[in-house]
Amino acid sequence: MNRDILDINDFTILIEEATSTEVTTDSCLFDEPVIAVAFYGSGNVDLTVKYGNQQKDFNHTKGLTLSFYADEKVEFRHTVSAGKPLECIVIATSPRNLKKLPNNEGELFTELLGQLVKPFDHYVEGPRFFMTPEMQHIVDGIFSNRYEGKAKMMFFRSQITALLSHFFWQLSMLKDEGIKSVEREKLYEAKEILSQNLDTPPSLTELSRQIGLNTFKLKKDFKELFGVPVFKYLQNERMTKAHNLIRNKEATVQEAAWHVGYDSLGSFSNAFAKKFGFRPSEIKS
Length: 285
Known about the structure:
By secondary structure, the protein is of the alpha+beta class. The protein has 2 domains: 2-176, Jelly Rolls (Sandwich); 181-282, Orthogonal Bundle (Arc Repressor Mutant, subunit A), CATH 1.10.10. The chain is built from 10 helices and 10 strands. α3 (133-144) runs antiparallel to α4 (149-176), α5 (181-196) crosses α6 and α8 (230-247) packs antiparallel against α9 (253-259). The model has no long low-confidence stretch (mean pLDDT 87).
């Protein structure tokens, strides 16, 4: 388990990363009430939130942004396994610090996360959504950085500020959009289906049938909610998965291509280069 805890202004930043060849559980509790936003990287770890007799499970966290209020009675439990490592960034502040936050952040919390500012239970979940490509790029950069010392603190400070800016902007967009909550859940389901079937993804027609949404609304609302068309998202996920497999030496270039549904190594290499600007064989050099 790698864990960095940083204090930036009146925010506490928790950056957690863990891998395991066996199924292991890591629990976390806050020592005071907090309003927080969690950003989950490509690890796709399982999350369970327990409070009193209640429990909520998140079995697909890759790319998830989750806002919440939690007091000392709430337990956050991550289940780490070989296929689901932990990559999590939590930006938290105490409700009493809202008025002290710079850059009008306190006003944004009050305006867009009012249910967290005035909670009705030990745990209150605010808006959740999957990150835009810009947000995902920032999160991936935080987990892949190699800075040390003061340079590392400067890097984290700039990236956390950018991440919060994207979060509040996306939140304001979601607040104004016309996608109903029931349809939004179906789009989350579509995103999960694609992520779990990178090697043999369903056709657009089949995906529409599985989630119960017609193809026109699926294409239109998926792009509106996630910022990219359905199969552009699929392509990004394929390349990111392949990059991680090769970078972590879990697969050769050919094996990574097979893992994400490419029979032709040439086609895979071209698609990879188009996404990252370099060929997969160059990762190890």
